[in-house]
Amino acid sequence: MDKKKVLVLTGGGDCPGLNAVIRGIFKRAKKEKDWEVLGSIEAFNGVMKEPVDVVRLTSKKVAGIHIKGGTILKTTNKGNPLSYPVQKEDGTWENIDKTDMLVERLKQLGIEAVINIGGDGSQLISQALYEKGVNIIGVPKTIDNDLSATDFTFGFRTAVQIATDSFDKLVTTAESHHRVMIMEVMGRDAGWIALHTAIAGGAELCLIPEIPYDIHKVVNHINKRYKKGKGFANIVIAEGAKPKGGEVFQKEAKLKHEEHVRLGGVAYLLSRQLKDAGCQAEIREAVLGHVQRGGTPIAFDRILATLFGVKAFEMVLDREFGNMVCYRGNKICTVSLKEATSTYNFVDKDSYLIKAARGVGISFGD
Questions:
Q1: Which of 16, 129, 250, 346 is the most exposed place for a label (fewest CB within 10 A)?
Q2: Nearest CA among 266, 123, 95, 259 for reference residue 194
Q3: What global pTM score does this model have?
């Protein structure tokens, strides 16, 4: 008898813990004798390619992968089937809807169910495919922790740990040289990594997308430290932070066939703004970039990712399609894809985290 097939894929940016989810799905599915697990390479691109780029997962392929960063199935943020970039004969690009072709291809492959591991963009794709009749389950993934339906996403705490370790090193060099050190972390629209890192590392200033900063207040805060005899200051800034009345700093112009605008380099912009506003201290910048996305996931993220993987396959068995696995109140739960993608998880400016940060003297430049 032919086995039923579940297709697993990872989309969007890579994230510590992706491999642990894949392993969790496979090992749980292996207990069911009538199931096999396939993997689509580079998210849905693997299904849409000619010929298809889909692999069968085996015990050998998933052995020990839970401790590795990245994803054995590869990933991309340029494969949205709802708006797929296609180059025309004249060299220009247009985005077309390839979901009907994708649905038909899944049927041709004999796929019984799909488990889509990804962030808010990936789960919007999951919802659209579910509405077209695809048996699909979502697994939340993002280092930015910006999905409101789950208390935490795997990879976030690893990213914070990496950022905190880096920040700790910058504190000592800032103190030694009497400098202002600016450390830029990821966070396009939400400042969770920056906020947690600032509290953990003891930053003097934390600049996040949710709270536009006044450069003069930032300078005043730095000057007060120097006047008190503390001749250094450390700043954590999220890549999506912006000044009051200003715009998010874009690293380069968006290309027509690219879905996402690239950010990065706001630390250097802030450095120039500080100097222009009269900051006399010597300033240095450090942009962590993709370091935050890589490496071995910490224990918490390995555990959470494994729990997500096991639960996702059990949701397939129970035919709970159109839902996403989530972590709420220290429990593994489920939530509809529609609810999961309805509200973005911004940092609440009145949250206890913000109040606690202010309570220990961290300024948000406002």
A1: 250
A2: 266
A3: 0.90
